[in-house]
Design a protein that fits this description.
Largest sheet: none
Strand content: under 5%
Structural class: mainly alpha
Helix content: over 70%
């Protein structure tokens, strides 16, 4: 599942050769930390992360729906048929 120590050392040498952005560096640090955890804790971590990502996505969808409803109430939404859409997209 995870690279053996020799493979990781090789990858670390490659990482040292290429400059990393702060985000990449933080991401790599997080991966390195998770790899130090026992397998059961790694699995728990993945499950918690998946739940949080799903919750975040639900929040984004809810915000998008609220914005769409607000735009509709404000008359900012254009209504029509598929034919109307196609005609508008060509002009």
């Amino acid at each position: 599942m995870f690279p053996n120590r020799g493979e990781r050392e090789g990858n670390e040498k490659e990482r040292k050769k290429t400059p990393m952005t702060t985000k990449q560096s933080q991401f790599q640090k997080a991966l390195d930390f998770v790899e130090t955890l026992p397998s059961d804790q790694q699995a728990d971590f993945v499950e918690v992360l998946r739940r949080r990502l799903a919750e975040h996505r639900r929040d984004e969808i809810a915000a998008s729906i609220r914005e769409a409803k607000s735009d509709n109430r404000a008359g900012k939404v254009k209504k029509g048929t598929v034919v109307d859409l196609m005609r508008d997209s060509r002009s």
